[in-house]
Amino acid sequence: MKVLTALLALAAARAQVPTTWAQAEVDTLELPAANPAYSAIHLDQAAYYRIPERVIYRTYPVYAPGREPAGYREWLQSREPEIAFDASKVKSKEQWVRAGETVFNTPTSFQAVFFTADNLRDPEFFRRTGMPIATDGTVPFARWTVRRKGEVELGSMGCNTCHTRVLAEGTVVPGAQGNNPGDRQGALLLASAATMLGQEQALARVRKFARQFQMPWLQDDCNRVTETMTIADFVKAGEEIPPGVTARANTSMILPPQIPDLIGVRQRRFLDHTGLIRQRGIGDLMRYSSLAQDLFSQDRYGSNSTAGRAGPPSARYSDPQLYSLALYLYSLQPPKNPHRSDASAVRGQAIFRREKCATCHTPPLYTNNRLIPADGFHPSAEIAGVLRAPIGVDARYTLETHKNTGYYKVPSLKGVWYRGPFGHNGSAATLEDWFDPSRIRPDYVPTGYKGYDGKTRSIPGHLFGLTLSGPEREDLIAFLNTL
Tell me, what DSSP letter sits at residue 11? Predict the structure, then answer.
């Protein structure tokens, strides 16, 4: 009887795992592009399931210089490879969540994308990049992995590389808007490559990398500027991208987006700043996770496209791995908020109501989960959940990248106290900067992302709150910090 009960429980656990790449669900996952003729065409279901499933090995913490336990490297060298994810052993929701944490921290790359093993043993690298270190001395953006005995590899580019934040006092917050200075690290790697390989070879490589962001069907595609950029230009562009912003896949080196906070993602109806992905259930978050990590390179654009932009990835997550990851993301909680409601916050809450901020940032989620069309965009079809009230923010990201829906989603204000920089491009470092009236002037110098060339520019749009008096702004921010 016990054996039968266990088998039935296992069958039930397996039965609840959605099929990630169900063709009908994939076909309706995304909003159409601003020009629907160039909406993404994704890999079909049969081809998806021909890609080998990723084997997830046990991983080990990476320590900052001077914080590694004595004998740690030798101990790692003695480790045997261990499989860390086995769906047949997962029998409860709690176990699914714990397994999802393993997936979240599992590297998908063992190449030097942002940093090398030598970088992470070099104090000067931490000083130059501003890479944060956790209280326990670990660097939570990477992991050591043993896939073959005696070979200890540095792995990164798991979810943790971009979606982990280390607070000022060293607390690690998984799923938060990340603050690994990845693009600045990449700029250092590029500068080193130019020295080792020569300017010409390094420039050819980085221009090839930059080509993935281009949109050939746009007459004035801003991403084409990379065709004439020098190594020094590319290095500067990377250095200008602050922690919390990154030029990730299908976005732009010129218009890199703010990294989203995944805490509370279960309540979001749309994912990505442009609302590109519909979240109708947990299966959609699984699909998006697979796209973001592995499948983006297979996307085709336009009806005349006949091939993906690259060969198929060497591995993909299995359906159980994606299910556990999604459950883990759904389980994440914000860190303990040190801000308590006081007289200033109470006044700020009254200002929030008076200024009708709740129209878009509706409690208790502090978002109405709707989309707002960018200035200059005139949708050709009705999309459910759209507000007809453009707010004047920079429209280029939603019109000139592969995330181009023509909309921006209304973000949640929950957890703004531990987040930043703000705005879909992370242009404002703090809430004080976001509510600074001078940010809309053309001679303003953004405190967050300044632009790839570092020149002065305004942060246009979202004028709400800019006419408040100084004390009123302080009170409003005091309230927002309690959320």
Answer: H
Average pLDDT score, the chain: 92
Q: Is the dihedral of CA 236, 239, 245, 249 positive or negative?
A: positive
pLDDT confidence bin for 310, thresholds 50/70/90: low
Burial of 454 (0-12, 13-18, 19+ CB in 10 A): middle
71: left (phi over 0), alpha (psi -120 to 50) or beta: left
C-alpha–C-alpha distance, residues 255 and 347, integer Å: 37
Residue 14 is which amino acid? R
CB 290 within 8 A of CB 21: yes
User: Of all helices (H) and strands (E), which one includes residue 155?
Assistant: strand 151-155
| Separation of alpha carbons 447 and 454, rounded Å | 11
Bridge partners (DSSP) listed for residue 166: 172
Closest C-alpha among 192, 66, 177 to residue 128: 192
Q: Which two tokens stand for residue 146?
A: 């043993």
Enter the tokens of residue 53: 């499933």
The span from the first CA to the last CA of the chain, in angstroms, equals 50
**Contacts of residue 258, Cβ cutoff 8 Å, sequence gap at least 6:** 177, 244, 245, 273, 421, 422, 423, 424, 425, 426
- What's 254's DSSP letter? S
Instruction: Write the pLDDT tens digit of every residue in 373-396.
Output: 999 898 877 787 888 778 999 999
Ordered domains of the chain (ranges, CATH) = 337-369+410-483 (1.10.760.10)
Highest-pLDDT range among 78-82, 111-115, 195-199, 248-252: 78-82
What pLDDT sits at residue 383?
Answer: 81
Is-contact 433 473, C-beta < 8 A?
Answer: no
Residues 402-425: what's their mean pLDDT? 96
Q: In this structure, what token pair is assigned to residue 225?
A: 């500027």
- The two tokens of residue 41 are 């065409």
Identify the pLDDT of residue 305.
56
HEC profile of 29-61: CECCCCCHHHCEECCCHHHHCCCCECCCECEEE
Task: Please state, in angstroms and as integers, the Cα–Cα distance from residue 137 to each residue in 141, 145, 171, 352, following that order.
Answer: 12, 18, 11, 40
Average pLDDT for 351-369: 97
Q: What is the pLDDT of residues 271-287, one digit of tens each?
A: 999 999 999 999 999 99
Neighbours of 193 (CB within 10 A): 18
CA distance 223 to 237: 12
